[in-house]
Structure to design on (238 residues):
């Protein structure tokens, strides 16, 4: 059921992406300076991958936000045993969706870029960039799920702090990988993935230290079908 829902969402969004790509105008660099060509190449890579990136990453973010709704309801009702089960079932679902989405996008990344009529002169750059971004989907989901859990527990300040930390790490790695190590688009993508992963790990450590109500017991980690179904239903609609 979950795979079918994911397949339907991806198919609908890909149709929107393809329609958008038909209307995009790609500016050819012509006889210009190397710097100007490099800048325009970077811009066209963003154009070529932006819609696809927004579709997939946006779905992941919406999924995590949706999972936080039942968690917030359980917290508000002070039903802490149910709260822990909601969190653990969200973890199982995040793991499942991470594996499925990452596998699908890595397998079909090149065909999708071809289908979107990505210009040949930037195709490989676009492919490298979006491949690394999609390989880091587990980091994206980790970062967004921990932030969603914190907000569901009434802590809206910490996610902003962790977002600032992630942004600072991203900028620092961009400067290091692109300027110092001359990595190009792969460096930019890697910086994004690593910054989200680090921030996600910091968030987990913070949650474990701050919220004793989330001290999980062995029985809390059981995947319960009705809870997973409820979480998936809210997540897919978010």
């Amino acid at each position: 059921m979950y795979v079918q829902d994911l397949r339907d969402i991806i198919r609908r969004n890909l149709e929107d992406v393809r329609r958008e790509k038909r209307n995009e105008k790609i500016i050819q660099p012509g006889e210009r300076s190397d710097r100007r060509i490099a800048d325009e190449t970077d811009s066209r890579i963003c154009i070529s991958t932006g819609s696809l990136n927004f579709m997939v990453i946006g779905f992941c973010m919406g999924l995590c936000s949706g999972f936080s709704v039942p968690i917030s309801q359980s917290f508000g009702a002070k039903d802490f045993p149910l709260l822990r089960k909601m969190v653990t079932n969200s973890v199982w679902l995040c793991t499942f969706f991470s594996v499925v989405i990452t596998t699908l996008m890595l397998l079909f990344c090149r065909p999708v870029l071809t289908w979107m009529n990505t210009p040949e002169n930037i195709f490989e750059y676009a492919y490298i960039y979006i491949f690394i971004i999609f390989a880091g989907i587990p980091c994206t989901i980790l970062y967004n799920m921990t932030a969603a859990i914190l907000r569901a527990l009434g802590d809206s300040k910490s996610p902003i702090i962790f977002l600032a930390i992630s942004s600072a790490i991203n900028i620092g790695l961009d400067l290091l990988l692109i300027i110092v190590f001359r990595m190009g688009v792969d460096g930019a993508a890697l910086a994004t993935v690593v910054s989200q992963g680090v921030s996600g790990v910091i968030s987990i450590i913070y949650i474990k230290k701050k919220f004793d109500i989330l001290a999980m017991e062995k029985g809390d980690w059981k995947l319960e079908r009705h809870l997973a179904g409820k979480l998936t239903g809210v997540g897919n609609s978010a």
